[in-house]
Design brief:
Elements: H1 2-31, E1 33-40, H2 46-56, H3 81-86, E2 93-99, E3 102-108, H4 117-123, E4 128-134, H5 141-153, E5 157-162, H6 171-182, E6 185-188, E7 190-193, E8 201-204, E9 209-212, E10 222-225, H7 233-238, H8 240-256, H9 262-267, E11 270-275, H10 284-294, E12 301-303, E13 306-308, E14 316-324, E15 333-341, E16 343-345, E17 349-352, E18 357-360, E19 365-368, E20 371-374, E21 377-379, E22 383-387, E23 397-399, E24 416-422, H11 428-440, E25 445-449, E26 456-460, H12 464-477, E27 481-486, E28 490-495, E29 508-513, E30 518-522, H13 525-534, E31 539-541
Parallel strand pairs: 1-3, 1-4, 4-5, 5-11, 6-11
Antiparallel strand pairs: 2-3, 7-8, 8-9, 9-10, 12-13, 14-15, 14-23, 15-22, 16-21, 17-18, 19-20, 24-26, 24-27, 25-26, 25-29, 28-30, 28-31, 29-30
């Protein structure tokens, strides 16, 4: 009997030790992960920066330059045909690569002014963001919108001031603008020495070295370690005037600038700033190495049962993006999953809380834009693609062990609307399929009128999405569309005892979304305020705060 108990205790000890080993392995892998989104205004150089990072990671061997449809090269991150024709990014893409012992996941978001809500949702999957700024233009409109989404989530934001080898604004002026426009203080990790034709390089404040720029051969970078900014060697390297200017700049930063504060950086209250030229590949590696040392590994995510530790033994994640027809020849549909905890293994069965069933994940893929590789395992922080036979929707949680869901993903209110109809009634089946799939992946939002007459409408965050919708319906579903623009600019979901027939408000249209929830489309803020005053028992929300498919 004694021997029996000893065996049981030994088995329990081995089981405990085995679980502990698994948790340690998971934590080690999670700590290697850095998942970032890159945000910017159009033409700030985002795609170029992305590709230079991929070059450092060995993921690609030659950067594709986006020059328009006549050029034979296209950016690695731009895979959709319309992107290649227009020379812009219109959908978020995912890329992963390894560098210096880290696994880096890049979420490349569109910078075009007419980007879609796909951009907003993609930012929810990132643990940090890189904000790219044109040194000549400063903080631009689109950057502000994307910054606001990142700021609301409280994630660390890193700033890369680009195109320093061209004429730029004064760097102090750019830092001041970050605070005035975005309300965020900055800590320059390095500092530029001149700009444009006088650009000589950057001085690293933390590591005390100067990185010299060679305009004749951008690939040739000379790095010199110095004692401090007053080291006489810098006079020999830069010239007396440039060296004196650098001394004055650094002294001003040390006296009047913000101190380095890692806690503030992690909260998104202080942005580490870098200077360089992505096109010349100057300062990019310096930025990357600092980023890997500062940026957070995956952190806890809020769920219906409380915070979920990324190093938890049980796997979990959520769907933040769905893309139909990534491979038009196979009419496939891919659901992008952000892993939030544990270890993913190919072929594993997980719980699907919304459907209240188990599903087997047998064809997981990881990405380099359009290129895909079957993945055998992945960890918290990684982004994987799942073949979707129609069972996944944006916001779905997948998990092992205890059933739970991650915080509901908001549905961002569209700002442009159009009535949609089909030109050939014989193509109605293809039309409805395309409308359903493109709605589910977030290209457009679908609304129906409430008058009893069939009235189908779509709403988009950016007006370019109308063009993307028409293009994809034509080329992926062989359906010609007719879009009639509507005058509405605001959509608000309604909470309360809402009766469409009794809602008599000028320049407002009662409707329902694809899940049957009541929505009102307004022409302007005045109409919205008037409706709120006239119907005080109704609440109007700009974000519906629901999982897609949840009533």
């Amino acid at each position: 009997m004694l021997h029996y108990h000893e065996v049981i205790k030994g088995t329990e000890r081995e089981t405990f030790e085995g679980k502990e080993r698994i948790c340690n392995v998971i934590k080690t892998e999670v700590d290697k992960r850095k998942t970032m989104a890159i945000i910017s205004h159009p033409d700030a150089g985002k795609t170029t920066l992305t590709e230079k990072l991929l070059l450092f990671g060995g993921a690609i061997h030659e950067a594709g330059m986006v020059k328009g449809k006549k050029n034979s090269k296209f950016a690695t991150s731009d895979w959709m045909e319309i992107e290649k024709q227009r020379g812009i990014s219109v959908t978020s893409s995912v890329m992963e690569f390894d560098y210096d012992g880290f696994r880096i996941n890049i979420l490349d978001t569109p910078g075009h002014e007419d980007f879609s809500e796909d951009t907003y949702r993609t930012l929810t999957a990132a643990d940090s963001a890189v904000m790219l700024i044109d040194g000549a233009k400063g903080v631009e409109a689109q950057t502000k919108k994307l910054f606001e989404v990142c700021s609301q989530r409280g994630i660390p934001i890193f700033t890369f001031v680009n195109k320093m080898d061209r004429e730029t604004r004064d760097p102090f002026e750019l830092m001041e603008e970050l605070e005035e426009v975005l309300g965020m203080r900055s800590y320059p990790m390095n500092w530029p020495i001149g700009s444009g034709i006088d650009f000589q390089g950057i001085y690293d404040r933390k590591n005390k070295y100067v990185e010299l720029f060679d305009s004749d051969d951008a690939k040739k970078v000379r790095v010199h370690k110095v004692e401090d900014v007053e080291d006489a060697l810098l006079t020999d390297l830069l010239g007396e005037e440039a060296h004196q200017k650098l001394i004055e700049d650094i002294q001003l930063l040390d006296i009047a600038g913000d101190a380095y504060d890692d806690e503030k950086i992690q909260k998104g209250d202080l942005t580490p700033s870098f200077f360089g030229s992505a096109l010349s590949n100057f300062g990019v590696q310096t930025f990357l190495e600092h980023f890997l040392n500062i940026a957070p590994a995956p952190v806890e995510r809020v769920s219906s049962i409380g915070p979920i530790n990324p190093a938890d033994q049980k796997f979990s994640g959520y769907i933040f993006k769905i893309q139909a027809n990534m491979n038009p020849a196979h009419r496939d549909r891919i659901a992008f999953l952000r892993i939030c905890s544990g270890k993913f293994e190919r072929g594993m069965s997980v719980k699907h809380p919304r459907l209240k069933k188990s599903v087997k994940l047998s064809q997981p893929q990881q990405f380099l834009a359009q290129e895909r590789n079957i993945v055998q395992d992945a960890y918290a922080g990684d982004i994987i693609g799942l073949f979707d036979p129609g069972i996944f929707q944006i916001g779905d949680t997948l998990c092992e062990g205890q059933t739970f869901t991650y915080d509901e993903m908001p549905n961002f209110a569209p700002e442009h609307f159009a009535r949609v109809s089909i030109k050939n009634a014989l193509k109605k089946k293809q039309f409805l399929k395309g409308l359903q799939q493109l709605t589910e992946e977030g290209t457009v939002q679908f609304f129906e009128g409430t008058t009893g007459i069939e009235e189908m409408m779509i709403g988009v965050v950016g007006e370019l999405q109308f063009e993307v919708f028409e293009y994809r319906m034509k080329h992926e579903y062989n359906v010609d569309m007719s879009l009639q623009r509507l005058p509405y600019q605001i959509a608000r979901w309604v909470d309360g005892d809402f009766k469409p027939s009794a809602f008599q408000v000028s320049n407002a249209k009662p409707a329902k979304d694809k899940e049957g929830r009541p929505v009102v489309l307004f022409e302007n803020e005045f109409n919205l305020r008037w409706a709120s005053e006239r119907f005080p028992d109704l609440a109007f929300y700009s974000q519906s705060h629901f999982h897609y498919g949840k009533k």
